[in-house]
Amino acid sequence: MSDDHKPQPASASAGDGHDGAGGRFGEDTRVVHVGRDPFANHGIVNPPVHHASTVLFPTLEAMVAAAADPTRGVYYGRYGTPITHALEDAYASLAGGRRGVALASGKTALMAVLAAFTRAGDHVVLLDNVYEPTRALADQFLGRYGVDVTYADPMLGADIATLFRPNTRLLMLEAPGSLTFEVPDLPAMIAAARTAGVRTALDNSWATPLYLKPLAMGVDVVMEAGTKYLVGHSDAMLGVLSATDDAFPFIRKAASEIGAPPGPDDCYLALRGLRTLSVRMARHQETGLTLARHLAGHDMVSRVLHPALPDCPGHDAFLRDFKGASGLFAIELVRPDDRPVPRARIAAMVDDMVLFKMGFSWGGFESLVLPVDPRRARTATRSNWEDRGPLLRIHAGLEDPADLIADLDAGLARYAAAG
């Protein structure tokens, strides 16, 4: 393995640069203050939005100076404007990294991670329950350029090391797993990767920096789909990343090469959403647990997959590593007989939901329900999901929990009657 791709001891620390809160306050205070400097902007509370492609320079010397690091000043619109840098600094401060990167979507952020640390002839390991677009990027984007991919059982723990090869460059983690919500033993996997000289990256979209600190656990890169809880209002596409000092240059270079910056208005919406992140996450957590516990006792529900409940795989790891839970989880419906449940029966439940609407993404103020099939996005653990009942992914929004329970109960009654 070449030295430039080997992980080095982590040296990231929060509170540097344009923190705003100085890194010395509690997290609820920090989400209000990071990434803004009112008295640098005439006392205006929120950073201004600049719409820009071309940036003018008064002298050749000024242009050459700006070109030395176009990602910190204002050099060209694709490298960001002050609102982009404010968001990047805010996310890095909360994530515990030295600097941040903002991109046009969560998938673009994932592409930057994969592109940063791999080249033709390399090998990567991904947990088998990563977000489906992560899998698509690994299989199609990396596969097209000669990078070999292995999928791992997310519950392997330290035994993940058995999958590493001399040319393994990256271990891609997600916690909890997409759709099925297993919680891997992150410290064991991170330690195994570091011992083997393998970079680690973790998709933290579910927990956000408030409930999980992957960089403090030793990962090289943390990313999330800011589209979801960070924005929080289902109205902007965004990806954000932060990294250790050692890993950041690779991420920054890959992001610049991809050339897919977020729009300034989306950055503004993300910063605005960030200010209420702690109160929204607390409500999502409370409502999600209320729904999960109610559904665990329903006779039409065979399993509830919520990391905070004891029956969820990896529950002990969740209690050890996470500070809280978001509002996203899944339920498995019962199969009244041993045959597959017809689509019409699932439709009887979901088509007439009043508050839970069907739609992709999550993290907004509205509740969502989505029928999913893990088998289409599993390799190492596909057999775990054979001969199971229908799986529904549920996002608990900010509505009254009693109203949400009534809507779910009515839907499950339709499901039962459709048989």
TrEMBL record:
Documented EC number(s): 4.4.1.13
Presence of the UniProt keyword Lyase in the record: yes
Segments for region (Disordered): 1-27
First-level EC class: lyase
Superkingdom of origin organism: Bacteria
InterPro entries listed in its UniProt record: Cys/Met-Metab_PyrdxlP-dep_enz, Cys_b_lyase_bac, Cys_met_metab_PP, PyrdxlP-dep_Trfase, PyrdxlP-dep_Trfase_major, PyrdxlP-dep_Trfase_small
Keyword Lyase: yes
Bias type Basic and acidic residues, positions: 16-27
Catalysed transformations (reactions): an S-substituted L-cysteine + H2O = a thiol + pyruvate + NH4(+); L,L-cystathionine + H2O = L-homocysteine + pyruvate + NH4(+)
Single GO MF annotation: cysteine-S-conjugate beta-lyase activity
Gene3D superfamilies (alphabetical): Aspartate Aminotransferase, domain 1, Type I PLP-dependent aspartate aminotransferase-like (Major domain)
PROSITE patterns for the chain: CYS_MET_METAB_PP
Cofactor: pyridoxal 5'-phosphate
Swiss-Prot/TrEMBL keywords: Lyase, Pyridoxal phosphate
Pathway(s) of this molecule: Amino-acid biosynthesis; L-methionine biosynthesis via de novo pathway; L-homocysteine from L-cystathionine: step 1/1
UniProt family annotation: Belongs to the trans-sulfuration enzymes family.
Listed name of the protein: Cystathionine beta-lyase
Source organism (scientific name): Tistrella arctica
